[in-house]
Fold these 2 entries.
Entry 1:
Amino acid sequence: MSAKPKVAFFDFACCEGCQLQIANLEEDILGLLGLVDLVEFREVMTGTAPEYDIAFIEGSITRKADEERLKDIRNRAKILVAYGQCAVTGGINKLKNLHSDMMEVRKIVYKDKAAMEHLDTYPTRAVGDVVKVDLIIPGCPINKDEFVSIVKQLALGKIPRIPDYPVCVECKLKENVCRYDEGEICLGPIARAGCGAICPSNGVACDACRGTVSNPNKQAMHEVLAKYNLTVDEIIGKINIFAVDPEVSK
Ligand code: SF4
Ligand code: SF4
Ligand code: SF4
């Protein structure tokens, strides 16, 4: 990789909230631009580039045409980073996979225009379901500070490490009142930390917007549910929001 890596950003099916986090970096953006050569980013600049050292991918894959475009980007990129939960797991876009009939989904959204050809869609796939992903940046949206830190590390040729322990760890260090004690359901025991347990620290239960740790402690989750007389069925709604693997509840 050259001293100043060529960096490009691409988006697929998403709300673009993660790239807005980047566009809103304010003074941090100047520091980053000193480290990388920004060659393509539809949200903030015009122009395209034929190849990139690092390609950041936002959004999920929901159409055959997306798949082909993503594979082309993969072929042009040395490092491919899936950023934001839409890209990492499919995120909230995967809610549509709860329906087996994709035309039914189209009708729910587009009503009498549902049959239009360009609305063709298939069940949501994460970026890693289609191409090799070298690194993930979790979150819905991503955390700006984490993003800046990761880009700096990549620019220096380092391999960033994403936290792989549960949100409960960060939450307990902050001595928060547990949301279960307030009668809520919280996915903190299996959710991937790194956000500083921002939701429970502000009186809101965790929905695992950063996905789960790579080896979720199912027993700990079951013990928490048993302690508060809750059943697995009662957490399924939470698990579905960010496409957490339903296996963690079994
Ligand atoms: S991960 Fe969340 S904030 Fe980011 S693009 Fe997807 S829906 Fe938007
Ligand atoms: S279950 Fe939720 S609120 Fe309770 S300690 Fe864990 S993260 Fe915090
Ligand atoms: S506490 Fe949970 S839902 Fe909130 S930002 Fe962190 S991982 Fe996401």
Entry 2:
Amino acid sequence: MMPIMVTRTDFNRYMMPTYNPASFIPSKAKGSLVWDKKNKKYIDFASGIAVSSLGHCHPELNKALVDQSKKMWHLSNVLMNEPAIRLAKIFCKHTFAEKVFFANSGAEAVEGAIKTARKFAYENISKKKNGIVSFSDAFHGRTMMAIALNGSERFVKGFGPMPGGIKNHPFNETKNLEKAITKNTAAVIIELVQGEAGIIKAKKDFIQKIKKLCKENKVLIIVDEVQSGAGRTGTLFAYEQFGVKPDIMCCAKGIGGGIPIAAVLTTTKIAKSMEIGSHGTTFGGNPLACAVAEKVMTLLTKKMLLNGVKKKEKIFLRELQSINKDHKCFSAIRSSGLWIGCKLNVTENFNLDTVMRACYENGLMILKANDNTIRIAPSLIIADSLILKGLKILRTVIQEQHP
Ligand SMILES: Cc1ncc(COP(=O)(O)O)c(C=O)c1O
């Protein structure tokens, strides 16, 4: 039976109006290429918002998915689940973690991390120790707790009342940090590289002060690596580059390579507070998702792949700087591995929307970040030749709009 054809009119008719997708309809994808229904080809610098870490339909991931699909799809967490346990073992081998809780999305991992931190403080230190410190411009997802952590009007307006106990402090600001992180704080949650904000790295002195205050006040550090993890920044997880060991870490996006899966990672000591029945999810750790993520993580832990991320970052930077030299179109180019932000020098005819639209028209997929910043987050194994072809398209677009 032929699948039913859909159009933009159907989208408007049947979908909740939370999204405003591009006008073309993608129909297939392979590696770093996507084709639409008219068979037009696009180079993918977006990878589904930093998700398809190994490109689309990677043969080894396809095989892992098909093999598992013939064995067992779903069990629930009332039964032992071999793919989940094997995946947890990989996380524990390659990170600080000793225990893992699987979830389905980044925001759900953030929820699990906050619950874990509060429960640990409640059981072990004080029943009043429940404060959470988050930072300005952070993005932790769209659940109630996740938007409350961000706190800005843009996210919370109309959805109140918000969960309480949260203090939002300016990112990279050491001044008055001691007023935010106190003995009543259970945890600090931080993105070491803020992605949605435009690839902004945490500064050394800021991290040092957070570490010092957390130690003095017995506060846990939750690192949100939902977007920065899974090799995106050139190391398996970004924390390896920032001299900070998380107490709890949130992962999602790239660890599944396109399959919805998330994880909360922590130590045995902290995990102990989360006794049977204290938290759960029906789909978290689903065997299909874990079988794919096991293959993703096995491939991502290879040194050669991670070194490749740094080499490809250099190609991007060289070309982007050359575009900027010729067109003075960016006020900043920031990068952390294959995660690049180019802040636009906006003019009347040149902004994020005009660039994005023209890129689509010319066969290139890019992403937006806040503050008029182009975000680039391709597959970690994108071919060098495709990087150059994609950047040629971007150069053409800029030439037309910002000559
Ligand atoms: C740092 C960070 N945390 C959490 C989330 C939320 O993830 P999800 O959309 O899977 O809920 C995101 C999503 O972009 C993110 O970038």
